[in-house]
Amino acid sequence: MSLKPADPQAIVIFGASGDLTKRKLLPAFWHLFVEGLLPSGFAIVGYARTEMHDRDWIEYVRDAIHEFGKVDPSGEPWDEFAKALSYLPGEFDSERAMDHLRGHLASVDRRRHTAGGRFYYCATPPAAYPSIVRRLGESELHGNAKIVIEKPFGRDLPSAHDLNDELHAVFDESQIFRIDHYLGKETVQNILAFRFANGMFEPIWNRRYIGSVQITVAEEIGIEGRGQFYEETGTIRDMVATHLFQVMTFIGMEPPVSFEPDRLRDEKVKVLRAMSLCDPSKVVRGQYAGYRAEPDVSKDSQGETFAAMELEVDSWRWAGVPFYLRTGKNLRRKDTEVTLSFRDVPYNLWRGVDAAPLARDHLTIHIQPHEGITLAMNVKKPGPGLAFDRATMDFAYDRRFEAPLAEAYELLLLEAMEGDHTLFTREDEVERAWEILQPVLDDPPPVVFYEKGSWGPKEADELIAPHVWHVSRR
Known about the structure:
Rossmann fold; 474 residues; alpha/beta; 15 strands; Dihydrodipicolinate Reductase, domain 2; globular; nine-stranded mixed β-sheet; 21% strand; 2 domains
């Protein structure tokens, strides 16, 4: 995270009364302010259809921070932060609907010394993005501005292409920040440090030594009242096209020539370009028992709450190595991790000896909630005779570092305000991800069912046989 505040700018949150704003954005901006990382000239303007006065908005912000933040909003710091808050009711659909926002921001510039800088955050349903962009263009609010777009970026390749066209009709690509909060996680960024700052791992990070790669994003919660969203989107669009593909590109990429934003993003796109299109016969779509009884869900829904798939990267480094991805709701527990399974030893010296069979070594990167890295290997058990056991070498963030990990949104907001695109997705990256998944979106296999609290349907186990899904015991 940069230690230097960005240039003065007025922050406008579209969808100010929504869940994302309350849970993530408002606490993140408050924490950045407390840490001295917001510009000296800043303002936060809430914009939504909900009728609200400034005093109501200030109370709303304080309640949100109190409930979801780490630092209580009180005392002189809160008084100073509250002075930066204002609210403007408004909509997105009518022509010239944001003309009043233009006047409001001019007043904010005078009062808060924001110098005409603009930072727009679209915390709305994705269907509103085109209207917001058109209104900003009509009211000439796009100059000297940055705009943040939340995932999903479209729902398939044609809609992603259309959304990018809408954005580029008003904003230059340099002004657009497509946010995926997984890229703000310290443990995801540490994949790059682990690979490229240690001489022992990069030489074996290839098909010669690695037999398979698994990426799991498991959630123990259900859809939490978002039935309409899941009916329209589903797990593949919501999670695979974004979070899982982002992690996969960090695992599969070549070393960038530098960490300039586009050099890193070039290598991520190369991984996606090397991936074969998704084969629907190598995809399992699951639905947890009881999903169809959720509010706003069809009684014969074919929306998936679980997805597992096998993908290939046709490159010199990864040819022939299967990448297995799985993600789902209402699974056994919350767990996000990457497991690289190494190939068997080339010659087993203990053939015919009465010893336990050798298991494959594996490296597991724990992204959340128990952040760290585990290397599992075979060791001899103490005592007479020859028997093997499994041992692990563990690195855990909470044992190594006293400071808690920074929230992903804090880092990403700061980077976007500074204009740094390193941790944001590019137009060609988004469209290629949808292109890979388009075959299964066009011809999805029927959903199969799984019990809440399980690891998903049995068909997901059959998909990767003779391999088995790695389950961390941390």
